[in-house]
Amino acid sequence: MSWGTKIILSFVVFMTGMLAMVFYVFNLKMDLVEDNYYEQDLKYQEHINTLEKTLKDGENLQIVKKAGSIDFQFPEQGSAPGGEIFFYRPSDAEKDFKINISPDEKRMQNVSTSQLDPGIWKIQVTWYSDNQKYFKEEKVFVD
HSE on the CB side for 1, CA within 13 Å? Predict the structure, then answer.
């Protein structure tokens, strides 16, 4: 094989590899953390104020991972909590979902982990008690 043929063959192999890489990158699925990230950024100061209020008022929501469920124990003080629990899957936005807060008479709410894929989940709880907004976020690993 002559040196000219080797150069052309090397060039063809290189171009094929580059085209395969471009094709792969264009077909790669990319999820933004938030679709409307600009609007979320504008609301960030309100979120910071809610976090500070939660810490200042001592509203201590307990999130406990047990076998087969995640338990949410809401604080005893104040009126019955309302709001929502957001389950955020960092690796796949299609698996994110929200549920409404509906605790029992002991202010406990259980969520079954059977509907959650194994891996890391970020749980964001926003609740209202006595017309005050509170927030807690915690990462949970589901087996």
Answer: 7
State the CB neighbour count (10 A cutoff) for residue 129.
19
User: What distance in Å separates the CA atoms of residue 8 and residue 75, rounded to the nearest whole number?
Assistant: 73
Gyration radius of the chain's alpha carbons: 24
Neighbouring-strand partners of residue 93:
none
Which parts of the chain register pLDDT below 70? 31-34
pTM: 0.69
What is residue 50's predicted lDDT score, i.e. its pLDDT? 87
CA-to-CA distance for 46 and 52, rounded, in angstroms? 10
pLDDT number for residue 31: 67
Contacts of residue 103, Cβ cutoff 8 Å, sequence gap at least 6: 72, 74, 80, 81, 109
CA-CA distance, 115 to 68, in Å (whole number)? 10
Q: In angstroms, what CA-CA distances link 97 with 54, 75, 128?
A: 23, 24, 19
Q: How many Cα atoms are found within 13 Å in the side-chain-facing hemisphere of 138?
A: 16
Residue 57 token pair = 């008022």
